[in-house]
Design goal:
It is globular, with a radius of gyration of 16 Å. The two termini are 20 Å apart. It is an all-alpha fold. A hairpin with a 5-residue loop joins strand 1 and strand 2. It has a single domain, classed as Hypothetical protein af1432 (Orthogonal Bundle). It has a two-stranded antiparallel sheet.
Length: 226
């Protein structure tokens, strides 16, 4: 759940209309999941194919701006797994699925965000590490602490990815020529992309060993090419 994209398209109504909302207020209304373990260990290795995951995304998320956010996070997750964690393609695919589906229930089930997609993936007997990762992407809201590298990076990328995209959109050349310094400056400007939680970004950063400047540079380069 990214504050920037939430602020862009608002809250969907039952009739399909989009109403502007206070994204921070809506986020604060989310309920903890009430548990900290997800999926079944017997399902380790069971994953959706790329085609199945994209089909679920299309069916559950009509809004193209939210789809874009989820695809950006998915691409970042996969790239990080391959380039920084040195994981094989098979494991990187799991990171990609978690990133792609982490907000899958937000548009249709905003008050039950995270709960519905978790239950759906549990019904499909999906690998518990993927489900655990999705449950971990907002500890302040869902009450699930990120423990694995996958969990921590989805939490790190969720808000920051959207923030950097917002920064790119206001530039004439978008991502081209964008540098870390300009993003850092905007992060210190509360009025810019105010829906994005700096608190969550700082909390996520405190859970990993990579400097913020390196994360920002990584996101710029990856989102520039996707």
């Amino acid at each position: 759940m990214n504050g920037y994209y939430l602020g862009q398209f608002g809250m969907p109504t039952k009739t399909g209309c989009i109403l502007p909302i206070n994204s921070n207020r809506m986020a604060d209304a989310l309920q903890p999941l009430g548990r900290t373990k997800f999926g079944n260990q017997a399902n380790i290795g069971n994953v959706l194919s790329k085609e199945e995951a994209l089909q679920l995304l299309t069916e559950w998320v009509p809004n193209e701006k939210l789809q874009l956010h989820m695809k950006q996070v998915a691409a970042l997750m996969k790239a990080w797994a391959l380039k920084r964690e040195n994981l094989p393609e098979e494991d990187a695919h799991n990171w990609w699925i978690a990133g792609l589906l982490h907000d899958a229930d937000w548009e249709k089930f905003p008050e039950e965000h995270c709960r519905v997609i978790i239950e759906e993936l549990e019904k499909r007997n999906i690998d518990p590490s993927i489900i655990q990762c999705i449950a971990s992407h907002g500890p302040r809201h869902f009450g699930v602490e990120p423990h694995s590298a996958t969990d921590k990076m989805i939490y790190m990328f969720d808000e920051l990815s959207g923030f950097i995209h917002a920064a790119a959109l206001v530039r004439p050349t978008k991502y081209e020529g964008m540098d870390v310094k300009s993003v850092m400056k905007k992060l210190k400007t509360p009025a810019f992309a105010a829906q994005v939680s700096r608190e969550d970004i700082n909390d996520a950063l405190g859970r990993i060993s990579t400097p913020l400047e390196d994360i920002i540079e990584f996101i710029i380069e990856e989102q520039k090419s996707n």
